[in-house]
Amino acid sequence: MKCVKCGAELKPGCVYCSVCGHEAQIVSDYSVLEDDYLRSLLREEDRKKEDAGKKGRSRKSTAEGKAKAPEKKSAGGRIALIVTICILTVVLIAGTAVKLSIDYRNANSYDYQVQMAEEKFADQDYKAALNYYKTALSLKTQDISVRMAMADLYLLQGDDDSAMVLLIEVIGLDGGRREAYEKLISVYEKKEDYESIIELSSGVKDDELSELFEPYIVEAPIISPAEGEYDDYITVSMFSLKDFDIYYTINGVAPDREKGRLYSHNLKIPLKEAGDYEIQAVCRNEKGIYSEVAVSNYVVTIAPPEYPNVQPDGGRISEEAVPVVITAGENCDIYYTWDGTDPTKFSEKYTRPLEIPEGNNILSVLAIDRRTGLDSGVYRTNFIYYP
């Protein structure tokens, strides 16, 4: 037998190897060649493992080297990145400063604001256009063209009140600006504010501008006769130079379509009774605009007619009687009786000279004014006639 460890020949009966001291084990016999071959295989296996270990360490070393190289490159890249960021920051700051400078210059440039307003107006961005015009006006507070442009924008947007304020300002700055008058009149007419149109016309002295107000100026009517005191019956007439409708009252109340009477052409308004009359009249055109009120005051003190004149005026008549002739004032009718009673408009009307009846008779006569209805009172005279 041989030692399984060192291969030394074991003596029969020995428990341990006399060479290496390893415990003796019973193993099958094999040849020395087999044993050498086995040993060579083991050594080859150990060599392969060692080579594999060396290669692994070599790859690890190479990888570590490669990993360290980028660290050197990364440090250089960070420096370049910092420089780039600094440059970009400087450029950004410079650009911002330039932009702020430009914005400040534009914000204080009248021409720029007007140009931008016109561009926004062309793009129909009316809100933005108004903002630019407002800034321009703050830079030139007395500017007329900007006010007119803003008024146009407000009118386009239906903001008549804002447009009206601007147009009034324009007229205040330039009293001869026809376009401003035209547009302001249009705004007033839309509101049917004719009083403001008339008030606006009162400050216009230029004849050409005055033409703009002709459709809105209604002249008061003419009342005839002139006001005053009259001691007789009168009739009143009225006239319109432009053939406008005339409304009138005779009780001192301001007339219009509701409170007045429509005057007909060639109408005569009679004042038949004594008293005080205040006639007021206005003209009204097709737009419904009224003129100022024309007023005429009349004091009518109508006197009654005088007593009739009788010829002969009574008496005793012994010879042939003569006809009795009676006369009275113009527009008077004469009534009479012979029996002493008071005549009235239902008594005998005098039409020709009267014959004196025989006997003692009292002639009573009365004159009545056909226009006023006033009478003279009864006049009496006594005729005694005996042929």
Question: How would you characterize this protein structure?
Answer:
The protein has 387 residues and is an alpha+beta fold. It has helices spanning 32-107, 110-122, 126-139, 144-156, 160-173, 178-190, 194-201, 207-210; strands at 222-224, 228-230, 234-239, 245-249, 261-262, 269-271, 275-284, 294-300, 309-311, 315-317, 325-327, 332-337, 348-349, 359-369, 379-385. α3 runs antiparallel to α4 (144-156), α4 (144-156) packs antiparallel against α5 (160-173) and α5 (160-173) runs antiparallel to α6. The model is unreliable at 27-34 (pLDDT under 50).
Concise structural overview:
The chain is 40% helix and 19% strand.
- Sheet with the most strands? 5 strands, mixed
> How would the global form be characterised?
rod-shaped
Number of helices: 8
- Output the structural class: alpha+beta
Briefly note the CATH topology name of the domain at 110-216: Serine Threonine Protein Phosphatase 5, Tetratricopeptide repeat
Q: Round the Cα radius of gyration to an integer and report it.
A: 68 Å
How many beta-strand elements?
15
SS strand fraction: 15-25%
Which class of the domain at 110-216 in CATH terms? Mainly Alpha
Element order: H for helix, E for strand: HHHHHHHHEEEEEEEEEEEEEEE
Distance between the ends: 230 Å
Would you identify the CATH architecture of the domain at 110-216? Alpha Horseshoe
Main-sheet strand order equals 2-8-7-4-5
Corresponding CATH superfamily of the domain at 110-216: Tetratricopeptide repeat domain
